[in-house]
Design a protein that fits this description.
Length: about 450
Amino acid sequence: MGGKPPTEALEPANVPTTGDTHLQLASASLRQLLEDARIPDTIRSTLSEDYAQVRAMLDKLEHGHLHIAVFGRVSVGKSSLLNALLGKTAFSVSVLHGETRSVNMQQWEEYADGGLFLIDTPGINEIDGEARERMAHEVASRTDLLLFVVDSDLTDVEFQALKIVAAAHRPILLVVNKADRYTEDEQRQLRSILRTRTQGVIAPENIVFTTAQASRQSVIFIDEDGTERDGIRERPLNVGALKARLWDIVEAEGKTLAALNASLFAGDLSNALGQRILAVKRELGAKTIRLYCLGKGIAVALNPIPVADLVAAAAIDVGMVVHLSRLYGLSISRSEAGDLVRTVLAQMVLLMGAVWAVHLLSSALKISSVGLSTLLTGVAQGAVAWYSTLVVGRVAEQWLANGKSWGDAGPKLTVQQILDSLDRDSVLAEAREEILAYVRTSVKS
């Protein structure tokens, strides 16, 4: 991209420029996000907006577009500055506080390839600023170059916002607008102050003074004979220095900036997607585990044969682990699931021997009790079965999330951590209520 004649023909065949190489790598990373076959369709559908962002960024790269956004307080002249760069009124300029309500983007046609786009954003100190500031930060994360506009020394609000925006690791130009209000000496002093305050954040050459709106000023002229007369002084629009700096950056680094932005975006989004995918998996996993907890609890509570209910319970746990493995995209056989269940239960017996003694005792009591006592014993045992399945499910999730591995913790510590994270009494109480509710409903029907 660029306003100068193309030079690709002067380069050796099949040897891409550095910028082109960066673009190819960035595009490949974005395509990898889109085409990752390891993501189940059920999870991909819940993240449709995130994938739409990836497609938009990829489209931007493939068309060679470069985005330049402005940030700043209300009334510093952000919209006027963009209009001055465009050479026409395309962005809303109003005396109303906070006229810019949403992000607005316009193509900068003066640039030869037509690949530059200017983006206006709401003021960082507008009403409901938190929501709009989040919007501005979202734009910053997808923007290749930032213009942070002020009209004087940085206020505390501006300085804090500048540091937050700088965290996006995009190049930033600090634009001091309304420069016509300052004399040359005042401009030199202000430039020196800003260089000191923004050291390490803004490069000195990226502090630029502009006048985005022409103005007329009433003045008193004194003639040679000492006669005073009223007059008007024209203060012309002046964005030449800013244009020159932008052209230099775009010509020298345009493709690299677009690629860097896309790579940062891909990395950030990949991490965010990873977290969201894991969260969705855990949410779906929690629902799956609960269904199996209820199924196992009821099966154990209503089964009058002690040995048979324990065998059925183990089969239910194995089925749950197989179900969870598919959810995590790591399908395993029933034999492998059975090994995992036995490992978890063995660790639970070691860590909770007394609880499992009660479980076995209540199972034995089933054949010697009748009526209400049988029901209460069955419900108690069903609650314990519910709890054991919850532990097995949580441990299995951890094992699957680690890529079918115990990691450094090992099975014993993993089971212990899961047990410590659960309030056993609360889980057992909830299980008893759910099982009893099911039994009452079944009896009525």
